[in-house]
Write a structure and sequence with these properties.
TIM Barrel; seven-stranded parallel beta sheet; alpha/beta
């Protein structure tokens, strides 16, 4: 039976191999260990095995785990964020992956200002048009980024997308390519407060 340490090592080896095949430095790829529905002790085991970033989908779950663990590594929010939860998200998370509207960004900015923090975020793009997916269209992402340049307590670090579910990883590739192109377009615009280096895309089943 594989342990968390075994599984983490295997995934890291796969990431390194995939990066080398693509001509990339494996160190430029960051693995977020998602811990939704997993208890604090299992999360601690992952950290002790070498997990360097923890991801959580739910505010209340994250708060319980963060308070119980008190580990000095970054926490990322990867779920859908409601506007009435922004003050908690600001307090708990180093990076929020799922900012899908300017209205949400304004709420984050207000909450971050009150807490004296510059909140790092990723803008969530919906590239599939699925009704079940959150996110903004490519055109809306550009408009959001331009508006966000006027906010002092939010810093855009990149983009996130969720491709349609598929058993074939190759079917995700066009969506990843489009997100990369959108990121490059944003970077070329040199918008103040927008530093689109990060791409949050690919899970353990499709990153290769």
């Amino acid at each position: 039976m594989f342990t968390i340490a075994d599984n983490l090592e295997r995934v890291q080896e796969r990431i390194a191999a995939a990066a080398r095949r693509a001509g990339r430095d494996p160190l430029t790829v960051r693995l977020v260990a998602v811990c939704k529905t997993v208890g604090p002790e299992r999360v601690r085991e992952a950290v002790e095995a070498g997990a360097q970033i923890l991801g959580e989908n739910y505010i209340q779950e994250a708060q319980r785990k963060i308070e119980a663990l008190r580990v000095g590594i970054p926490w990322h929010f990867i779920g859908h964020l409601q506007k009435n939860k922004t003050k908690y998200a600001i307090r708990l998370f180093d990076l929020i992956h799922s900012v899908d509207s300017f209205a949400l960004t304004e709420e984050l900015n207000r909450a971050a200002q009150k807490q004296g923090k510059i909140q790092e975020v990723l803008l969530q793009a919906d590239l599939s048009g699925e009704e079940t997916k959150f996110g903004a269209s490519e055109g809306e992402i550009i408009q959001m980024a331009e508006k966000i340049s006027g906010l002092k307590n939010v810093s855009v670090k990149g983009l996130m997308t969720l491709p349609p579910f598929s058993d074939d990883p190759e079917e995700s590739r066009p969506y990843f390519q489009r997100l990369r192109s959108l990121r490059d377009q944003l970077a070329g615009m040199k918008i103040p407060g927008v530093f689109p280096q990060e791409l949050s895309m690919g899970m353990s089943g499709d990153f290769e």
